[in-house]
Amino acid sequence: MKNITKIIAIATLILIVSCGEDKKETVDNRPTVNVKTATPLAGNGKFISASGKIEAVQNATISTRNMGYVNNIAVNVGDKVSKGQLLISINSADISAQQGQVNASIIEATAAFKNAEKDYNRYKTLFSENSASQKEMDDMTANYEMAKARLEAANQMKNQVQAQLSYSNITAPFSGIVTGKYINKGDMANPGMPLLSVETPGKFQVMAMVPEHEITAIKNGATVNVLVKSTNNIIKGKVTEVSSSAKNTGGQYLVKVLLDKSDAKLLSGMFASVQFPSEKSIESSSIFIPSAVIIKKGELKGVYVVSQNNTALLRWLRLGKTSGENVEVLSGLSADETYILSSESKLVNGSKLNIQ
What we know:
By secondary structure, the chain is an alpha+beta fold. The protein has helices at 2-28, 93-128, 134-166, 212-215, and strands at 32-38, 41-42, 47-56, 59-62, 68-73, 80-81, 86-90, 169-171, 176-181, 188-189, 196-199, 204-211, 223-228, 233-242, 252-259, 271-277, 287-290, 295-297, 300-306, 312-316, 318-323, 326-331, 339-343, 352-355. It starts with a helix and ends with a strand. Residues 16-28 have low confidence and may be disordered.
């Protein structure tokens, strides 16, 4: 009986050891991922970073002062237009009717003025010959001045109607390209409603918003670097305007940066990051990592770091401002930790690493 018990115990021990070896072999056979690593960059504190949008220096959103149906749109988005070229025609039947009435009133006022002028000149001669009384001369003078005023009023009314007609036939304010069309033929145009947008290509600027605690460090005329995020191009620019009020911008100050000529393909509405030089140091302990290594899962953002066991470990971070291609890490990563810069295959928590 004792021998049988010993045999069972030995068999059980062999089975346990065998399972442990199999498990160890399975763990050891996990694929190793080749990765490149880096350590966070220390901020230099020599610049202030702000986000903005690119727009053409000369641009206009065209609208009308009249209400009416759109009769015709003579251009499409992308068309080149010349200054004074007809863009949109709006139904102006009511204004044309007013114009007819004004023309008739001008004819009537002109005839009345000419008749009053003749009477005035005749009585002026009679008065000089003592053949007309002072009362008669005063009456003729008053009649003449009133006729003259009515004619002037009719002419001014004509100018007003012509101005209204000019808003029915909308022309290009300058030579450029049509960049937007916000209405179709047959739609009702209302006063102030955007109809078209036109801009002159080739000369662009960035409209950046800077918080109040940094605006005093930005100087007009300063040379800056502008990172165009969609094309990853860095373009030189010059600060041309620094707003002195944030009354209507929610505490953010508007800064305009004129971009230098570049071969980069720029379009209005592109996002850009502007790096303004700063005379004062605003950092000492800030660290940065490339924006490209950030892992996003919903609202969470993190990065893979190298654990003590030489495996991948996903670490969630709290991020700050963007500086060019890098982003500031506020918490979740220390300056002496190593994060994974790139990998040859997909990483998951616990992936074995081969650091190159």
